[in-house]
Amino acid sequence: MRVGDAATLPAGRPSGLAAGSARLLHGVEQALGAVCALVLAVLLAVVLAAVTARYVLGAGILGSDELAIWLHVALVALGAPLAIGSALAMRLDVFTRRLPALGQAAAAVLAESFTVLSGLVLAFGGAGIVATLGGTSPTLGLPEWVRFAILGLGGGLVVLVTALRHLALGRIGALLAVLAIGIGVYLLARELRLAADLPPSAVLGLVAFVGLVIGAPLPHAFLAGAYLAIPFGSTMPEPAMVATTVSGISKFLLLAIPFFLVAGGLLTASGVAARLVRFAASLVGHRRAGLAQTTLLTGVLFSGASGSSVANAAFGAATFQPELVRHGHSKAQAGALIAATSVLDNVIPPSIAFLILAAATNLSVGSLLVGGLVAGAVMAAALAVAIRLSVSQGASSAAASSRERWRAAYAALPALGLGVIVVVGIRFGVVTTTEAAALAAAYSLIVGCLGGLRPRGVYDAFRQAGVEAAAIGLLIGTAAPFAFLLAVDDIAGGVAGLLHGLGGGPAGVLLIANAILIIAGLVLDIGAAILLFGPILLPAVTAAGIDPIHFGVILIVNLMIGGLTPPVGMLVYVVSGVTGVPAAALFRAIPPYLGALMIALAILSAGAVLLSGPPAP
User: Fold this and answer.
1) Same domain for 319 and 216?
2) Signed CA dihedral, 199, 202, 203, 204: sign only
3) What number of other Cβ atoms are within 10 A of residue 41's Cβ?
4) Region label for 316, one of left (φ > 0), alpha (ψ between -120 and 50) or beta (otherwise)
5) Exposed site from 63, 326, 329, 486, fewest CB < 10 Å?
6) Is residue 91 situated within a structural domain?
7) Other beta carbons within 10 Å of 366
8) DSSP 288
9) What is the pLDDT of residues 525-555, one digit of tens each?
């Protein structure tokens, strides 16, 4: 169930309580959406002002970076209630859908209980910090507890929105059960102390896995798992969980994520992205499987104007699915092609996945982006071959003349220029990653407004980007307590020892690491898998002599392939949701493209082994 669905009442005359709750829920959602859009706009203005002062006036703005970080925390906190029902909520419902009606209802109650529990942890953990933390920010002049209190407020709003969703649908009994379980477990875990051989990080992982299986949002499953690890010896109390969560999202680099999201949204809303389609068609539309090849090339080009595979999947499904079907492709084949080509968005820069990896491992963003260009080229070539071999349809258009191609290229320049700004600016150290993302967002806003984008379209793009950024930021933040417990329990050291014991040289270690990542990609969202397995596997692989940048690129490619594999396959579900084609049918049509991407992964892995150095002593 999505957040927006909560305001839609069942057929028949709704009760007074349900109707009132639906109106209140709608008002809360509208207000939070407007606040998210406003916070993101102010955040963009702050960073752009700092960029202008630094590079034009030669002087910085005192406290601008800290203010931007605090605004990002506020964006995540206030967008968290809306993110519950977004496409990036990281809910896994493939198992619960197979249950009978009664089992699905029970699983839904348990899943919502995870959400209530995590909301209580944020709310009371934030209150604990407010009561004990002193000091004032030297640059902003604000009490230090403010940003923690904002996240606590977000936790309270998560509980409120969850309750209103049930009341709006008349599910009072389910709501009482959700609150009873969530509050009961919260109070009980504060008092229990249990003896167990499992380390706290393992308890957290098991609880989070249970939450994932029953359909709880993954960030809430992480936070609930961290709280339930306390009775098993965890040394992280509630306030420390909130502090660690805030610390996880208080990185200037992560501000690039909402900026890239809003840049892609503005280009799509303004119609500039559609020019990429015409340019791609002028280059390859006349060839065999011309429309399929156009879909692929558009995915490559759109990757330079976006950083989100989910955005590309939604755009491709709305743009290409009807045309592919009209030209003789089956609905499943068309959807599978769109899902497969959208993988490239998180590999070809600018890539949100590389930003998350860099934040988790301190790898160079510029080097990762260059590696992404190489990997994207290999993957695109593999997909082109797969399309050539598996698609029997002919050309979709007559061959374009040189003049028509130049005109299409000229029209697409605004979108193509965005990728140039980002990659060149970051790689050559002209601007930081976040500054480049802010410039990209400003560029997209100017291009969109010049192209006739109306204020409502601008608002919608900022609101959607704010909610999506909140979902990603909440995942990054709530994974931080897990990462802390993994470090305390030295899980990375144990994995490193296991890999070296089993794998031996670089080829063996990388093979095992790839196998682990493929399995992780089957059941985990890419963001969660990066945050969990990046810090664990990177030391072991680099100790075997593999270049860390090479492995970082391989890790992203590997996990992006997981976006096409059941049972999670987020990209498949996005395409299914937009086109109405059942996900099961899309999964059955994926193998030709999945095989091509696995070959590309093997080529990249072989290259990393050939370029590896001697293992660490």
Assistant:
1) no
2) positive
3) 17
4) alpha
5) 326
6) yes
7) 21
8) T
9) 777 788 888 888 888 888 888 999 999 999 9
Shared-domain flag, residues 179 and 287 = no
What is the C-alpha to C-alpha distance for residues 306 and 285, in angstroms, rounded to an integer? Answer: 23
For residue 114, is it within any domain? yes
Position 388 scores a pLDDT of 84
* Amino acid symbol at 432: T
Q: How many CB atoms lie within 10 A of CB 140?
A: 16
The two structure tokens encoding residue 192: 């229990």
User: Domain span at residue 494?
Assistant: 255-453+490-610
- The verdict on 218 and 260 lying in the same domain is no
- For 136, phi and psi rounded to 5 degrees? -130, 140
Residues with Cβ within 8 Å of 276's Cβ and at least 6 positions away in sequence, in order, are: 298, 301, 302, 305, 412, 415, 416
Closest CA to 499 of 479, 486, 517, 482: 517
Structure-token pair, residue 248: 């996880």
Q: How far is CA 508 from the centre of its chain?
A: 30
DSSP, collapsed to helix, strand or coil, labels residue 9 as: coil
Residues 165 and 77 occupy one common structural domain: yes
Closest CA to 216 of 123, 89, 310, 124: 89
Describe the crossing of helices 352-361 and 548-561 by its angle, rounded to 10 degrees.
130
Tokens (6 digits) for 462 = 């900022």
Partners of residue 136 on adjacent β-strands: 143
Neighbours of 146 (CB within 10 A): 16
Q: Mean pLDDT in the chain?
A: 83
> 371 and 502 share a domain?
yes
pLDDT < 50 regions, the chain: 1-13, 394-396
Task: Give the CA distances from residue 356 to residues 256, 359, 364, in Å, rounded to whole numbers and listed in that order.
Answer: 10, 5, 12
- Range list of H helices, 362-454: 365-390, 402-427, 433-450
Contact 155, 130 (CB under 8 A): no
Domain termination residue (choose one: 197, 222, 250): 250
Handedness of CA 279, 280, 281, 285 (dihedral sign): positive
Report the half-sphere exposure of 268 (CA within 13 A, side-chain side): 27
Quick one: tokens of 586? 């899309």
Report pTM. Answer: 0.81
Q: How far apart are CA 352 and CA 296, in angstroms?
A: 20
For the record, the structure tokens of 568 come out as 């999670």
Same domain (yes/no): 241, 359: no
Same domain membership, residue 503 and residue 409: yes
One domain for residues 164 and 261: no
3-state secondary structure of 425: helix
Residues in a beta bridge with 143? 136
Amino acid at the residue 36 = C
What distance lies between CA 285 and its chain's CA centroid? Answer: 32
**557 lies in a domain?**
yes
Closest listed residue to residue 234, CA positions, set 263, 265, 200 = 200
Bond from prior residue into 539 cis (ω within 30 degrees of 0): no
Query: At 179, which helix (H) or strand (E)?
Result: helix 172-191
- Domain boundary residue, one of 212, 233, 250: 250
Task: With CA atoms as reference, report the closest residue to 84 among 40, 36, 116, 123.
Answer: 116
Q: Which of 555, 506, 504, 561 is nearest to 534 (CA)?
A: 555
Domain-embedded: residue 463: no
Number of domains in the chain: 2
